[in-house]
Specification:
The chain is α/β, with parallel strands linked by helices. The chain contains 15 helices and 16 strands. The protein has a seven-stranded parallel β-sheet with strand order 10-9-11-8-7-12-13, sandwiched between helices. A four-stranded parallel β-sheet has the order 5-4-3-6, sandwiched between helices. Strands 1-2-16 form a three-stranded antiparallel β-sheet, with no helix packed on it. Strand 12, helix 15 and strand 13 form a beta-alpha-beta unit. The longest helix has 17 residues.
Amino acid sequence: MKEQVKRAKTISKKLLSLDREVKDKIFDELIENLDKRRVEIIDQNKIDLKLAKDNDLSSAMVDRLELNDERINQMIDGVRAIKEQPDVVGSFFDEFENKEGLKIKKQRVPLGVILMIFESRPNVVIDSAALAIKSSNSIILKGGKEATYSNKVLGDIIEESIRKYISPDMVIVLDSNDRSQIENLLKLNEYIDVVIPRGGHGLINYVSENAKMPVIAHFKGLCHMYVDKSANIDKAINLIENAKTQRPGVCNAIETLIVHKDVLPKIASKLVNNLKEKGTELRVDNSFNLESPESLSIATDKDWETEYLENILSVKTVNNIDDAIEHISKFGSNHSECIISEDDDACLKFLNNVDASCVMVNASTRFNDGGQLGLGAEIGISTTKIHAYGPMGAEQMTTARYVVVGDGHVRK
């Protein structure tokens, strides 16, 4: 494994000069091979799905694990979108000339070697590989054992797509079964420039505590939606349904709904009925329960700090927008937060006081996604602020260096 990592470092030093024509050929091969081998992908994924069900993995985990024709099409669309994006590596920006006549500018350059440790989602293998190629980084992918067979076949497809054009050491998909590799990988800061953990609380904490290289954490999504007193009720109901039930087991689904007390009587009954049809379990505070005759579970303090990743929604009633902001500040995970309001001042106040990688105004939190935000795909959603915040696409997988052009200039 160490030898593989060393080879990834060696090839990373040659990638700054990798031109677009070569990258596009790799992308074309990857698209063709994903399509050509889709039956094999689905067959291998079925083995993982069976093992997941035999081991009683949660429905959210199984949902994230599954690959089908639609999701393979989404992976292909993501690769195609990344291919078609403008080149970012080597591009210049913020150019100016100082009073001595020096031309100073910044240039986008790759991070180097990225270690990606993730759980469950095999599509991450393709998304991350494509983004690494676009951003001229080497990447080492270490998935969880629950996706062993899926990750293996996708890794084989990537290697097949790359080897005609550049060393396959640019993208290394490690054995998903050997968890002991993680401890050793986190010590290889001589060769690995940054590690990105994407998964549960335990994984994030372990990587953050043990890594010898910088960490860009992609932590949990304890996301909120606040229904302000000026909210349009029909709009609010539709947004809540989408943000919770469209795909409950993903990190940008809402876990807590915050409702202004003046809106509660207008929204409670319809909300309960609509979410009941979607199979949503509601855990509400006492104010909501008093307003609604239905039999509802009472939320506990534990609910406010829980990322369910299931079709469960906790509901908190507040007196004003300040209380909503305070609740988010206390329990939010800097992922995705939303306000539903027709009051521009309230929206601006929410925007200026809520700390999250993406803040939505009258839009579903489900849009905090690299594909939806124009990145083609994402390596993940960073909930830290150094060096990226929010979905990480090709540009976020680069850094900027200074380039200074003179004509014999010396400093006096």
